[in-house]
Amino acid sequence: MRADRLLSLMLLLQANGRMTAQDLARQLEVSERTIYRDIDALSTAGVPVYTQAGINGGVFLDEHYRISLTGLAPDEVQALFVAGEAGPLRDLGLARAGEATLLKLFAALPTAQRGEVERLRQRIYIDPSVWFQQPEDAPCLPTLQQAVWEDRLIDVVYQPVEGERSARTLAALALVAKANIWYLVGSAPGGEPHTYRASRFSAVTLTDAHFARDESFDLAVYWQEARQRFEEKMAAAFPPYPATLRIRAEMLWYFASFMEGRYQQLSERDADGWIIIRVDFHAYGDALMKVLGLGTAAAVIEPDALRAGVIETARALVAAHETADQASE
Question: 0.90 cut: is pTM over it?
Fold first, then answer.
């Protein structure tokens, strides 16, 4: 632990040039007295680290001293340091470790490449979440993480999308984060791997039993194939449902915000403020719900079945509310 802290101290000084003992203590989460002991240890080991008192003083390395990391091409440096959210790493308790790793790599870069890193961070940022995404509560994640790491069998209670909640025993093979949502890849002992959404576990208990991991299992290959199967299944169950709508021009923002790539504007705004668009909904039910949600700002041109469904549902809504009004009198 101390060796890691000594290395972090040197890398902080190399990256920042000069720091106070107070700043170093805060960064490394130790006392200032510990910092000064570490400085003495580094000096004894031959590292040219110095302290200077006064307003412009602090702790610093000899300006010619470098922990060098050479041989990285410019695009390799960019791949390492492009800015982004720590989401999944934070969920696993590894956010600080990720930051420390990048700090060490940054401090070890040649001076010319360190300037390029800052330019990159101000030009590219990766946010893996989707718009309006709410964090999923998965309190079992630490237990799943331990089970995956230790090749443990777990007793779980799981609620699938369809069907009853059930108890089962799983071999915890792997964890996958997709758009900041965690999934467990697990299998019944001796069975084939399946995917389970972490937030749907209501109970996870580590057992004392371990499982023998199949050496032929490749997580990346499994996930790509499982994702493709799921997407194909959803496409077959909910084929695209095209419809032509007449909407108020001021409601076009809704389609641009929530259905980008799935609609086409067919006309310009007319004198009364209407435009015509063609939309690929996920299914009939999806189209019905969204059109009704737009209220009087949308009207169905085609297909006839959707227009009839909107009219029928609207009448049923009126009748239901009239009945509710009468019951309250």
Answer: no
